[in-house]
Design brief:
Elements: H1 3-17, E1 29-32, E2 35-38, E3 113-116, E4 118-120, E5 132-139, H2 142-154, E6 160-164, E7 169-176, H3 179-188, E8 197-201
Parallel strand pairs: 3-8
Antiparallel strand pairs: 1-2, 4-6, 5-7, 5-8, 6-7
Length: 202
């Protein structure tokens, strides 16, 4: 049994003395009888793709479907609805255009008087007669003229009795310088003396 050990030892010495040449392990080329011959290598079969079905994938846990949370709002109180009635616009017809013309001065009132000769029955120096005299009564008898005079005196007037040439007694309520003033006095007493008129001395 010592022979293999001797061979191994001799081989190591020869290798050391021969330059420590270590041949490659058989691979692409192998040493055979001093000649290098290609070593036939068995064809390598390509790896076949592994189907997905061969290797089961790791099952992932599936989460249960999440239901959407429904938000329910409380119904607000209905606001009062204000009904606004439509405004009724009244159509007004346009006024006719009138040219502004300066107003003409009013004509003076025509004098309506009765002229006659008369005489004052009772002289009253404090109340002399003027040109235009307002007559409120005419009587054929003096007594009636005196009664009207007393009545108007009690109301604050200063009446005067005159008599014309035919014997008619006139009761003059007031006497004025202008016809306009006399007409104003007649308008003031027309409710009680609708037949009042203006007397002028002839």
């Amino acid at each position: 049994m010592r022979i293999p050990y001797l061979l191994i030892a001799a081989l190591c010495v020869s290798l050391f003395l021969g330059g420590c040449t270590i041949q490659r392990a058989p691979g692409a080329y192998a040493v055979a009888g001093g000649k290098k011959e290609p070593v036939k290598e068995s064809p390598v079969q390509p790896e076949q793709p592994v189907a997905d079905t061969e290797l089961p994938r790791e099952a992932k846990p599936v989460a249960p479907p999440v239901e959407e949370e429904k938000i329910v709002f409380k119904a607000d109180k209905p606001e009062p609805v204000t009904v606004v009635e439509p405004e009724v616009i009244e159509t007004v017809a346009p006024l006719p255009v009138v040219d502004t013309v300066p107003a003409a001065p009013l004509p003076e009132e025509k004098e309506v008087t009765r002229a006659e000769q008369f005489t004052v029955v009772e002289a009253q120096p404090e109340n002399p007669l003027k040109d235009y005299n307002v007559v409120i009564g005419s009587f054929g008898r003096r007594e009636n003229a005196d009664g009207l005079k007393q009545r108007m005196t009690a109301e604050g007037y200063k009446p005067v009795i005159v008599v014309n040439d035919r014997g008619m007694f006139r009761v003059i309520l007031a006497s004025f310088d202008t016809y306009k003033e006399a007409r104003t006095q007649i308008a003031a007493v027309k409710d009680n003396f609708a037949d009042a008129w203006v007397l002028v001395q002839k």
